[in-house]
Design a protein that fits this description.
Layout lengths: L1 H95 L4 H55 L1
Helix pairs in contact: 1-2
């Protein structure tokens, strides 16, 4: 009976030792999994921060380009307005000196034709400036979208 008790005691001790070793292995594996998860989370947050910074930089570049375009359009409009005013005053002075109805009509027709040609030319210039401004202001955002789409497709 003493031998049986000794055998049971050894079996229990062996089982306890095995359980302890298994428990330590599980605990070590859990700790490693936690470290790995934390490292991945930290890396993901760093990447998210970098992406957010790049997005903000793209928005800033876009706003800067839009502002430059608005300034260019404003300068063109002011220049055209000034030139138009000066041309109109000069035309009125010339028309006022007309000596006949025929001369008055010729001067008025000439001024109207000239003013319309200048107006169409200015509208074309302003349209080109606006188109270039819109293109320049959307360029940084389009580049960010393209980069993001490429990253998402690569992650698939």
């Amino acid at each position: 009976m003493a031998d049986a008790a000794e055998t049971v005691k050894k079996t229990v001790e062996q089982a306890a030792s095995t359980a302890k070793v298994q428990s330590e292995k599980v605990q070590a594996a859990g700790a490693q999994a936690l470290r790995d998860g934390m490292e991945k989370t930290t890396a993901s947050l760093a990447q998210l921060s970098a992406e957010s910074k790049s997005n903000l930089e793209a928005l800033t570049a876009s706003a800067t380009a839009a502002q430059k375009g608005a300034e260019a359009l404003s300068a063109q409009a002011m220049s055209y307005g000034k030139t138009s005013w000066e041309t109109g005053v000069a035309a009125a002075q010339t028309i006022a000196k007309a000596r006949s109805i025929q001369e008055l009509l010729e001067l008025q027709t000439s001024y109207a034709k000239s003013a319309m040609e200048v107006y169409v030319s200015e509208v074309s210039k302003m349209t080109e400036t606006l188109t270039a401004s819109v293109k320049d202001s959307f360029k940084p955002i389009n580049e960010r979208v393209t980069t993001s789409v490429e990253k998402f497709q690569a992650a698939r």
